[in-house]
Structures are given as structure tokens and as C-alpha cells.
Specification:
The protein is an alpha/beta fold. The protein is built from seven helices and 13 strands. The longest helix has 13 residues. The relative contact order is 0.20.
Length: 255
């Protein structure tokens, strides 16, 4: 079957292109290069802040647009801009709930971060790998663009309580973390704000749902059941399979 692809292709990072939390396999990097040479504009959209996206890409694709913090941050032409942050009242409400469940969390500002979780939590291996930011107290952040709960007495009850209060919640059950974003911010909303409405997308998790739902051609990486109804194609979560699907898209005519 011939796929007529869109000229912009959007990629989630963790679990889609990156499988060890730190690097992208050379086979995928080569396929991404072929996709760009075929005329696709590349966009990388992640739950990570821009600060933590850059070391994974290792300087590759410098002209690509970056979306970080599940849509709260964007980088176009190398300039990082904050799109959304928690309002003081909403943040106070979220922190009250986090305190009720003794939650440890990673709070990201536009560049620096605060962390109160366990010091041996694996999330810390993904934070500020290039050592370009500061770990500070929450009150020292100029704004909070994302809050990631990494431990709590009851993650499910915390997620449910925050949903009931109208807070945007992405509960990653398999990783035992909860991702909170300001307002209705998500990857698709950030993409649309940049004027990108026709695109292909690759994603693997619940925070990619709206991104894949609105894509011209949506590729699910791995078996997440919530993405099945919106995906045109599903590929195995390994470098060889992902690279092959990127190359297939690169070779397809655009429409």
C-alpha cells in the first residue's frame, strides 16, 4: 500500500526513538537523516524539557523544531521559549495534593529544576545530562512548566484526586510516575500553535494520544492500548523496527 506522507514528521523521544534513556541508536539516526534529506521537516516532541532533549540528540538535526515539557516549551531556530506555566493558584493546589500523598517530584522551570524524590530514582539519570542547569529549591524557579511525581503513598489516588480538580494528568502506570502539565497544554496543542497542522507522528505513550489522533499518518511504537484506535501502523519498540518504518515513510510520496 502506498502511503502519501505529510512534509512534517513529529517524533516522541523516550520509548519511541530512545530506549535507554540517554541515546538514540545509530540506525534510527541514519533513518532520521534520510527522512530529512527526503524533504521532511523534523520535529521532536517530548515530555522532557528542552534542556534534557538536547543531549539525547547530541547536536544532530540542528534545524529541527523542539517541543518540550509536553508542550509547555518550544525551541525554534535554537531559541527556547516558554509557552505555558502553572498559575500560582493551580500550582499551590497541586502541591497541596502532592503533600497529602507525601509525593516526591521533579519540578521543571524554563531551564533549571527542583527535585524532592529519592536520590536513587532512575529519573535522575535523564535530568541535565550536559550539566547546564542548576538544581534549586522550588521557590527559586521563575515558573514551573511541568511537575513529575516519582513517588507517593498512593499514585493512583493522587492521579484521581488531581483529575477531579481539573489538573492535566498523564499517569504512566508502567513507569510508576505521574506527569502534570499546566492547563490543557499537550504536544499537539503546542504543534498547532506553531502553525503545524498537517504532519506524520511517531509515539508510544498516553501523552502522545492527541498528537497521533490528529496526525495525517500515525505510527504507534509498542503496544500501548490507548493508542491503538488512532494509529495507522504499529511497530515493535526496538531500533531496527523503528528505523525501518522511518525509512518507509521517507521513501513514500508526499501529498
Amino acid at each position: 500500500m502506498i502511503i502519501f506522507s505529510a512534509p512534517t514528521t513529529v517524533f516522541d523521544i523516550d520509548g519511541t526513538l530512545c530506549f535507554d534513556g540517554r541515546t538514540i541508536d545509530p540506525r534510527i539516526l541514519s533513518a532520521l537523516d534520510a527522512c530529512e534529506r527526503a524533504g521532511h521537516e523534523l520535529v521532536f516532541a517530548s515530555a522532557r524539557p528542552i534542556r534534557d532533549l538536547l543531549p539525547v540528540l547530541e547536536g544532530a538535526f540542528p534545524s529541527a523544531t523542539l517541543i518540550g515539557g509536553n508542550g509547555s516549551l518550544v525551541s525554534v531556530g535554537g531559541r527556547v521559549r516558554m509557552r505555558a506555566a502553572f498559575k500560582p493558584k493551580d500550582l499551590a493546589e497541586l502541591l497541596d495534593e502532592a503533600g497529602r500523598f507525601r509525593a516526591g517530584y521533579l519540578a521543571d522551570g524554563p531551564w533549571d529544576y527542583a527535585y524532592t524524590g529519592p536520590e536513587d530514582h532512575p529519573i535522575l539519570t535523564r535530568v541535565d545530562q550536559s550539566r547546564v542547569a542548576r538544581r534549586v529549591q522550588l521557590t527559586e524557579l521563575s515558573a514551573v512548566v511541568k511537575l513529575l511525581v516519582v513517588s507517593a503513598t498512593d499514585l493512583f489516588a493522587l492521579a484521581a484526586s488531581c483529575r477531579a480538580r481539573g489538573i492535566a494528568v498523564n499517569h504512566h502506570v508502567d513507569e510508576a510516575i505521574i506527569d502534570f502539565a499546566p492547563g490543557t497544554t499537550d504536544k499537539y496543542e503546542a504543534l498547532a500553535s506553531l502553525g503545524i497542522t498537517r504532519y506524520n507522528a511517531f509515539g508510544n505513550d498516553i501523552n502522545d494520544l492527541t498528537l497521533l489522533r490528529h496526525a495525517h499518518h500515525a505510527v504507534r511504537v509498542g503496544p500501548h492500548p490507548a493508542l491503538a484506535p488512532v494509529a495507522a501502523v504499529t511497530v515493535a519498540p526496538d531500533p531496527e523496527s523503528v528505523a525501518a518504518e522511518i525509512l518507509r515513510l521517507a521513501a513514500a510520496p508526499t501529498a
